[in-house]
Amino acid sequence: MARVTAGPANRARKKRVLKRTKGHYSLRHKAIRTAKESADKAGQYAYRDRKNKKRDFRALWIMRINAGARENGLTYSVLMGGLKAAGIELDRKVLSDLAIHNPEDFKLLAEKAKAALKKAA
């Protein structure tokens, strides 16, 4: 019976790792041991940062809404409270987009929020 080696399987495994580290610097894409560590760490960063991306975008949207609110004489928290009192349920992503690309529409929303706050008080 012929002797069986792990040659093809080993080669395939190494190629798979080296393919994942394509574009990494120095030995991180050449040496199999270093490439393996680099690929594992890259996977950890990717997993973590998929979560952090959501956090970062929400913070960006809030900054943009706050800037738009302050142009209309409100603060972020007052604007959001007024929109809730007025029954306007737009998410932060849409409000941010309105504040940047359609300031006149955002101004209308801010006025409705002010009116709702005056009515509630």
Structural class, please? mainly alpha
Amino- and carboxy-terminal Cα gap: 91 Å
CATH architecture: Orthogonal Bundle
Q: What does the radius of gyration come to? A: 26 Å
Which shape, going by the Cα principal axes? rod-shaped
Annotation field: number of helices: 5
Report the top-level CATH class: Mainly Alpha
Q: What letter string, H or E per element, gives the SSE order? A: HHHHH
Largest sheet: none
The counted number of beta strands is 0
Global mean pLDDT: 96
Instruction: Examine the coordinates and then state which fold CATH places here, giving the name of the CATH topology.
Output: c-terminal domain of poly(a) binding protein
Could you estimate the helical fraction of the residues in percent? Answer: over 70%
Please, what is the CATH homologous superfamily?
Ribosomal protein L20, C-terminal domain
> What percentage of the residues does DSSP assign to strands (E)?
under 5%
Low-confidence stretches: none
Write down the domain tally.
Answer: 1
Structural description of this entry:
It contains five helices and no strands. It is an all-alpha fold. The protein has a single domain, classed as Orthogonal Bundle (c-terminal domain of poly(a) binding protein), CATH 1.10.1900.20. The chain starts with 6 loop residues before the first helix and ends with a helix.
